[in-house]
Amino acid sequence: MSDFSAYSNYTSLQLRRHPHGVLEVVMPGAGANKSSLSTADANMHRELAEIWRDIDRDPDTRVALIRGEGKGFSAGGNLALVEDMANDFDVRARVWREARDLVYNVINCSKPIVSAMHGPAVGAGLVAGLLADISIASKSARIIDGHTRLGVAAGHAAIVWPLLCGMAKAKYYLLLCEPVSGEEAERIGLVSLAVDENELMPKAIEVANRLAQGSQIGIRWTKYVLNNWLRPAGPTSDTSLALEFMGFSGPDVHEGMRSLRELRAPDFPGGAPF
Question: Which CATH number characterizes residue 41's domain?
Fold first, then answer.
């Protein structure tokens, strides 16, 4: 790493420098050999929200490339964090703030961001993956927004899914928690590009290098302009996150957690308080 001191604070994300000013952000897998899915514990969630501000300030980084390690891109928040959010207001408020910052920090990072998604892509990692300026998925990737399966509103997705793939598709996948393959995600416009899995990282590095070696003035200002399509949706994002985190204080999330632990379909009570 460079002498950019802010990166010394990161203990969950792994940061690797490549030529031409490309910074690789790795969400490490779990387990002794790190071959299983990356899950976002409290520290990983915080770092995923903050890293984009530091990348923006880093004079040696021109492009960020985010990927997962092990069997997939990201597995979402671990159940211990979800349980803490359901039971502790202070935790819920802190994670809500981080979730909000993650959205806005990715959008406002002046440096272009490339994502390389393989296997399951869920949760906070998926937010960064889909908000990235160029999102690349393996054809066999499984993109899943699992919020309604857990019993809460689909928070982050509201700002970008309808713009990427249209409202009809967004409602179908978000309301039903239906998985989207990387190949289908490219077809409906949810990701920029889908490739065979063995081509994923070479293609992502190629795209990142092209961005890094291009006009930084032209590329960064074009990103800023295009992201003005997302900025007016900020109130929609804020509302969706508020409703998601209100849901963590409700009854459905407890059944959602139990069903995930017991590997069964959830049996949610009928009705809603509105």
Answer: 3.90.226.10
Give domain status of residue 268, yes or no: no
Would you call 274 helix, strand, or coil by DSSP? coil
- Supply the pLDDT for residue 269: 84
**Domain total in the chain:** 1
pLDDT at 197: 97
Contacts 24+ apart (CB under 8 A), 181-184: 181/139, 181/140, 181/141, 181/142, 181/143, 182/117, 182/118, 182/137, 182/138, 182/139, 182/140, 182/141, 182/142, 182/143, 183/139, 183/140
Take residue 62 and report the two structure tokens written for it: 């021109």
Low-confidence ranges of the chain (pLDDT < 50): 32
Q: Containing domain of residue 198, as a range?
A: 5-261
What pLDDT is stored for residue 105 in this prediction? 98
CB neighbourhood size of 51 (10 A):
26
Evaluate whether 174 touches 155 at the Cβ level (below 8 Å).
no
Residue 147 CB partners (closer than 8 Å, separation 6+) = 153, 154, 155, 157, 174, 177, 244
Query: Residue 2's pLDDT is what?
Result: 52
- What pLDDT is attached to residue 37? 63
Residue 32: per-residue pLDDT: 46
**From the CB of residue 163, how many other CB atoms can be counted at a distance below 10 Å?**
13
* Dihedral over Cα of 37, 174, 159, 227: its sign: positive
236 inside domain:
yes
Instruction: Please report whether residue 273 resides in a domain.
Output: no
Gap between the Cα atoms of 121 and 75, Å rounded: 6
In a domain, 271, yes or no: no
What's the pLDDT tens digit per position in 118-164? 999 999 999 999 999 999 999 999 999 999 999 999 988 999 999 99
pLDDT of residue 270: 73
